[in-house]
Amino acid sequence: MENQYVSTRDPKCAVSAKQAILKGIAPDGGLFVWPDVDKVRVDLEKIVDNGYLDNAVYILNALLGDYSEAELRACVDNAYKNSFASPAITPLRAVGDIHVLELFHGPTSAFKDVALTLLPQLMSTALKTTGQKAMIMTATSGDTGKAAMAGFQDVDNIAIEVFYPHNKVSAMQYRQMATQEGNNVKVFAIEGNFDDAQTKVKELFMDEELNAEAARQGVMLTSANSINVGRLVPQIVYYFEAYKDLVREGVVALGDKVSFSVPTGNFGDVLAGYYASMMGLPVEKFYVASNSNKVLTDFLKTGVYDKNRAFVQTISPSMDILVSSNLERLLYYMTGKDSAKVARWMDELKTQGRYTVDDATLARIRSLFDGDFVTDEQTKETIQSVYETTGIVLDPHTAIGYRVARSHPERPVVALATASPYKFSMDVLDALGTASVDEWDALRKLETVCQDAIPAPLAALETKPIRHRDVIEVGQMKEVVRQGLEALL
Ligand SMILES: *Cc1c(COP(=O)(O)O)cnc(C)c1O
């Protein structure tokens, strides 16, 4: 059990769960995976009887070998006991004939909170074992950055730097990040898009000079992005929770299959669902729902992953991504754990921007995954039609998953709701046919139609001062990380 996790690109590159979480990414550029996760069997009866916290401890304990159960219990309690507005953590709500899994009741109103309230706990626990400090570098398309900073704010021995694409996040996402408090957090807008930021962050993890400098100071460079195992594992829990609720409501009998529709960017969220299915969750289909950056839709149709295309800025900015990093983990399992093949494809992606998977792999993927994309116009139309027929307001990301679920036949189907509509209130209001002058006006107008009140942390932003104003070039990222290392001393 000790060296449980290996790189997707090399089985000889093996580490423990704690090390995998501290390192974030494998030294060869691969992602850490546990090859034997498909041998874990989750007891569904136990899941149905338990509450969220107990289920989280149970599932984490099955996946993170060198954490003790007592450590995991403390991590889970610290993460979830006081920070979610819903006692269920991730409540399931029927919207028409689709079950919507609301993942946005955490501190920053996006699903990233479910993992990013827990990751700092897992990391601090692991750091106690090694006696090191950690410097977290995180690229964000808007939601991860805020959730990560909120989770890591003033955590001892950890500093965090976040990079987001300048002018390519929603007004509320910008406010959330630029007003972030905490002595150990820094936020930078970069000239470029999310992929530019993510690619550079991955490069910096491999940077020998930077790593040597960090090591001299007893600091690990690590990531809070969904490439980190510590992000993936907490997300597996809510797939089981959704199933539990369907069983309790009598929608399915224990053992019946369910489908999931997942608004997708970096492929982290839907991958967690795949992990759940490998561990015994009965799943019929996963729908990979994309916006107009439809690389994954094309990939699922043709087996060709091709990022050589124009990047489209949409009203679902958290999904404006052309390189879905976590797909690498799916390829690892779907090729029968063929690391050499995965390494070759990832090399082709790096050098040519595209790769083609073999027919057998594509067939295996397609037996469980289906995909579709939704344009901005269709997203708005969905927000409006769902509101008119059910009275419920969806955010643009959720609307994409909802629309894809609606257009496919499988039932029951769970559509993952990844953000509160308040986080994207201007575009949501626009979809409902109401104009707004700014994000604050939009918040208040939206509250007159939404069933839920404005989340308190979003309302509070209006009076918070802007604390972070730096706009930098991608080429300056290394230097600001270096400066961050000095500040950790
Ligand atoms: C991050 C995000 C997504 C995409 O999730 P991935 O794990 O990157 O696929 C979808 N919706 C929202 C609101 C997000 O913040």
Explain this structure to me?
Keywords: Lyase. It is an enzyme of class 4 (lyase). Its EC number is 4.2.3.1. This is Threonine synthase. The longest helix has 20 residues, at 229-248. The two termini are 34 Å apart. The model has no long low-confidence stretch (mean pLDDT 96). A hairpin with a 2-residue loop joins strand 4 and strand 5. This protein is α/β, with parallel strands linked by helices and 489 residues long. Helix 3 packs across helix 4, helix 3 (52-63) crosses helix 11 and helix 11 (229-248) packs across helix 12 (268-278). A six-stranded mixed beta sheet has the order 4-5-15-10-11-14, sandwiched between helices. A five-stranded parallel beta sheet has the order 9-6-7-8-16, sandwiched between helices. 45% of the residues lie in helices and 16% in strands. It has a domain at 92-110 and 230-461: Rossmann fold (3-Layer(aba) Sandwich), CATH 3.40.50.1100. It is built from 22 helices and 16 strands. Pyridoxal-5'-phosphate binds at residues 110, 112, 143, 226, 263-269, 318-319, 397, 418-419.
